[in-house]
Amino acid sequence: MAQMTPQVSKLLEQALSLSVEEQEALADSLISSLGGKVDEGVRAAWDDEIKKRITELDSGKAKTIPWPEVRNRNLAKLPRAH
Fold it and tell me: pLDDT in tens for each of the 82 residues of the chain?
């Protein structure tokens, strides 16, 4: 995977400030623009992983972290444009 340029980091920071609905629409648009076919094996693996994670959340096995804390941690890791 390519490293993020300062410009891409700035775009990511802006994208993270959007509402969840806006982020979903942006992510969907970006993925759709890649034009690649969906690998059904990958889709099935993601479906299985999602089901596993939902089960872990519902059972209390997985612990959650509030979104503001996760967002702040991730933003702190981004390189800052000069």
Answer: 567 788 998 999 999 999 989 999 998 888 888 776 777 888 889 899 999 999 999 999 999 999 999 999 999 998 876 5
Residue 53 within any structural domain of the chain? yes
- The token pair at 36 is 């690649």
Range of the domain at 67: 40-82
Cβ contact 50:62 at 8 Å: no
Q: Whole-model pTM? A: 0.44
CA dihedral 50, 53, 20, 76 (to 10 degrees): -120
